[in-house]
Amino acid sequence: MAICSKNFIFFLFSTLSIISLSYQLQHPLDSLTPNEFIQIKALVNQSYPTSNHNLTFHHVGLEEPNKQLVISWLENSSTTPPPRQAFVIARINHKTHEIIVDLSSKRIISDQIYNGYGYPVLTFDEQNAASMLVFKYEPFLASISKRGLKIEEVVCEAFAVGWYGEKQKNGRVVKVLSFYKDGTINMYMRPIETITMTVDLEEMKVLHFQDRFMIPVPKANGTDYRESEQRAPFGPQLKGITVVQPDGPSFTIDGNRVRWANWDFHLSFDTRAGPIISLASIYDTEKQKFRRVMYRGFLSEIFVPYMGLTEEWYFRVFFDAGEYGYGLCAVPLEPHRDCPPNAVFMGAFVAGQDGMPIEMHNVFCIFERNAGDIMWRHTETMIQDELVTEVRPEVSLVVRMISTEDNYDYINDWEFKQIGSIKVTVGLTGLLEVRGSKYTHKDQIHKEVYGTLLAENSIGVYHDHFLSYYLDLDVDGESNSFIKSKMQTTRVTDQNSPRKSYWKVVSETAETESDAKIKIGLESADLLVVNPNKKTKVGNPVGYRLIPGSVAGPLLTDDDYPQIRGAFTKYNVWVTPYNKSEKWVGGLYTDQSRGEDTLATWTKRNRRIKNKDIVLWYTFGFHHIPYQEEYPLMPTLSGGFELRPANFFESNPVLKVKAPNLVRWPNCST
């Protein structure tokens, strides 16, 4: 779970041949274009020439435009669109600069130095440099030699160091750890334990080296996961299966705008968040218009604390979006494997450490899913001499991205359903973080080892995955409220029924942020975002409800340093008033952060949220106890949540939906 694997970066990202491009802005929420990256780099370099300034770009992305201006432009696109601006985080002469570039006037309109705790996202270049630096460090080479290992088979990785109560600010440093191939591509199953190096990223030098003692490197046998390396016996072979749409897809893509069935939304890419879904609206056939559901939604952070406490493990606490960039770690999707044959692919662009645009191929795939599920059905058997059966198959639209955060692969799906639901699913697969050990059998273990013995000398370390989502719901408008509808057991006190009890619904509308903090599972309740200003014909406020999935809460103590930084996991649900600057639950500067700029600290103001423009934050997760079936590679484990209409429509919105045209296959037997 440490960092994006850098060994494949050179073929994962291909630098563009920059040519003059004529680009007509189609939407104010579109990601930056290659020409805009070039323009930004030129303006920053003009202010800070690299001839006498140490300059690296850590983030270059769209400066989110004013929400009200965007909405006004949507309602009347003939008006002037919001100003097109970029937000840049750069390290200039070892200081962190926050720069806003106005792309219309082609000038820097703001340049502030950040002096607080925490540092920007680590760049690929500096992680690579730190990992390669140690191969010229004699004490490290000597440690590898005394273990009898081949230096050419060693792979090193840089890890964020976190914060553990230090009063003074550390510089920008990483820990470098090593792994071994020699007979397998699966280096994560072959850690070289007890060797740790601390590298200064600014000076690019080794500050500290430690080799405590020697532990056997786990064997390579049986760890390679490549299809070409597998040998008999094999599992049963399935017959061919495919998805065919002879008439083409039912969705259209216009720039970054996606339209399918009754859905219309904007898709963009962010280096930190990955996919951003904006302006998601659904067509109401009765009202004959599109109605907004969500202004903006994206993954805000992935928090992964490991439970190992040794010198080589205590700091393995990862904020995958804030430290490494969830979007930056996106990988090219494999047609027919990562995505079905009917998928359409989209690419994206990011800025390299030098500010130049880099193309990422096939970062998204969009496809219609027809997996044999049923949207609705009923068979009426109670009418004499008449059997009535009506069935509608479930077809949905999926937007997928996969982010490989070093050993783990996260499969991120946004799924849009005709019933009006938005379903978010994240699948965890890839490789476990394994700790080398002297043990070869469970019976030998008589002390805490912080994990499961998976194979000889290999312990899968206990850890958590917490995934936090930013969901700016605008249910039929911006002014919304958050309601908790509790199911309350009630005793029957009169003699009118033979029953002893029933349950009723008691609804509570949150007035302030503190009212909306919820640990899911403590009581039965529906959680709704409603528009109190709009009601159905029978008087119910229109709304959407959150259907939780994969509920998990932190097991670390509140005063533990990782939990201070990850305090946003204390509650599964938070609700805040909309604030453009509040996007990242772990803070803007997560590397070595100290928990002073998190969702948990923002909500201490206890602002009012009733009938306001509000943001719903939802955190789901997994407590991961490794098992042998997850060795040497982990089958996908999925979790997520659903946003489902709750009195948003007057009645079932898919009652009149027709099934897709039947595709008739030729009779191959004749």
Give a brief rundown of this model.
The chain is mainly beta. Residues 5-24 have low confidence and may be disordered.
Features:
670 residues, mainly beta, 4-stranded antiparallel beta sheet, 8 helices, 33 strands
List the helices and strands and how they pair.
Layout: H1 9-12, E1 13-15, H2 34-47, E2 55-62, H3 67-75, E3 85-92, E4 95-102, E5 107-114, H4 124-133, H5 138-146, E6 154-160, E7 173-180, E8 191-200, E9 205-211, E10 251-254, E11 257-260, E12 263-270, E13 274-284, E14 289-305, E15 317-319, H6 320-324, E16 344-351, E17 357-369, E18 374-380, E19 388-393, E20 396-405, E21 408-417, E22 422-430, E23 434-436, E24 451-455, E25 458-461, E26 463-473, E27 479-491, E28 501-509, E29 525-535, E30 541-547, H7 561-565, E31 573-577, H8 599-602, E32 612-624, E33 634-646
Antiparallel strand pairs: 1-17, 2-3, 3-4, 4-5, 6-7, 7-8, 8-9, 10-11, 11-12, 12-13, 13-14, 14-15, 14-26, 16-17, 17-20, 18-19, 20-21, 21-22, 22-33, 23-25, 24-25, 26-32, 27-28, 27-29, 27-32, 29-30, 30-33, 31-32
pLDDT < 50 runs, ≥5 residues: 5-24
Radius of gyration, whole Å: 27 Å
What is the number of strand segments? 33
Q: Can you count the helices?
A: 8
Kindly, what is the distance between the CA atoms of the first and last residues, rounded to a whole number of angstroms?
54 Å
Shape estimate: globular
Oligomer: single chain
Question: What number is the mean pLDDT?
Answer: 94
Percent of residues in β-strands: 35-45%
Helix content: under 10%
Alpha-beta content class: mainly beta
> Main sheet, how many strands, which sense, barrel?
20 strands, antiparallel
